[in-house]
Amino acid sequence: MQERTKGELKLKLFPDSTLGNAQAMISGVRGGTIDMEMSGSNNFAGLSPVMNLLDVPFLFRDTAHAHKTLDGKVGDDLKASLEGKGLKVLA
């Protein structure tokens, strides 16, 4: 990444909860001390209870159904529910 962006972007990985558990890292992103974090949808339910919907068993028929749903209006609504809380959802 650094080479492709001519040094404009640098990526430093912190694996295995080095910076804390999911909640601590989400707080870090919201507070600006962590730039990016990847976590399961269940970890965001405290900020947006609607995220609990994604944990319903057999919600999607298959992977294609999940992608179609989450890449559409439903996904946009879920993202919007977090973006007003100091987070920018990338995927």
UniProtKB/TrEMBL annotation:
Q: Which GO terms describe its biological process?
A: transmembrane transport
Sorted alphabetically, which Gene3D superfamilies does this protein's record hold? Bacterial extracellular solute-binding protein, family 7 (3.40.190.170)
Ordered alphabetically, the record's keywords are: Signal
Q: Carries keyword Magnesium?
A: no
Q: Which InterPro entries match?
A: DctP_fam, TRAP_DctP_sf
GO MF term list: carbohydrate binding
Descriptive protein name:
2,3-diketo-L-gulonate TRAP transporter, substrate-binding periplasmic protein
